[in-house]
Amino acid sequence: MTDLPTFHTKRLVLRPRAMADLNACLAMDRDTEVTRFVAGPWDDPARHAAFVRERIAADFGRGLGYWSVFDRHEPHRFLGWVLLIPRDGSGPDIEIGWRFIRQAWGRGFATEATLPVVAYAFVALGLERIVADIAVGNAGSMKVARKIGMRAAVHEAGPDVLFVMTRADYARPGRGRG
């Protein structure tokens, strides 16, 4: 696992995801509404646990990985995660993604948590662009993508819409960054 920074926002703490977060991640994924738009081994407890353990331990490259998101005022309250990893595991595109417990939905946490990761991607890592694959029916995630400044670029054959943000998009004056 690479060294990732910790981020603090007004309401949240994002820290590199660790094995200590395993049970919270598994519990979140067992909520069928949370994983409704995401393919995965959610119905097979052993495969599910192995999948999440593998993701926690993986080295995605310099400065890339997952951040666990916690309530700043209740530091042990797991809310979800944000990722910045190679798309489809191999790149070359770098994907930003997020998943939150249902109790955190509709409160702006996903937007608040992704903004420092977006800044990190462009400023600290110097990436030229980031992408997000979002299932067509996932209106909540599409809303987050738009709020952080991404735009729908391609409607691919399949169940996803590709959202994109370039470094130029990020630097554009007046772009809503929080």
From TrEMBL:
It comes from the Bacteria. InterPro entries: Acyl_CoA_acyltransferase (IPR016181), GNAT_dom (IPR000182), N-acetyltransferase (IPR051531). The keyword Transferase applies. It holds the Pfam family Acetyltransf_3. The keyword Magnesium does not apply. Gene3D superfamilies: 3.40.630.30. Transmembrane segments: none annotated. Residues 12-170 form the N-acetyltransferase domain. Keywords: Transferase. GO terms for molecular function: acyltransferase activity, transferring groups other than amino-acyl groups. This is GNAT family N-acetyltransferase. It comes from Gluconacetobacter takamatsuzukensis.
